[in-house]
Amino acid sequence: MITLYILALPPQLYEKLGWYTVPITAIATFTFFGVDAIGSEIENPFGYDINDLPVDDYCSNLRKEIESLFEERPLDPCQWNKKTE
Questions:
Q1: Residue 33 lies in domain
Q2: pLDDT per position as a tens digit, 1-41
Q3: Rounded to whole angstroms, how far apart are CA atoms 29 and 9?
């Protein structure tokens, strides 16, 4: 759909802009295809490509944090008001 729009753009602009149509069409082409490429990249962030999120690392860190919560012994409430030195 973007290709069709880009191919139809120069005839629409030529009457008003003349030869300025060429750089404007180039800028529009770069912009539209760039936004399309960005959309394709962020469409699936949970893969193993270089620019995907490191979900395995996130899960590993979360597991370590949860394990550390359960490693410590709960404090005895009777000891809460005693001074420690």
A1: 2-72
A2: 999 999 999 999 998 989 999 999 999 999 999 999 999 88
A3: 10
Instruction: Decide which of 6 and 73 is more confident.
Output: 6
Q: CA 41 to CA 45: how far, in whole Å?
A: 7
Q: How far apart are the two ends of the chain, measured CA to CA in Å? A: 74
In a domain, 30, yes or no: yes
Evaluate if residue 76 carries a pLDDT over 80: no
Give dist(CA 43, CA 17) in Å, integer: 36
Burial class (CB in 10 A: 0-12, 13-18, 19+), 14: middle
77 inside domain: no
Residues 6+ apart with CB under 8 A from 2: 32, 33, 36
75 secondary structure, DSSP code: P
Report the pLDDT averaged over residues 39-62.
88
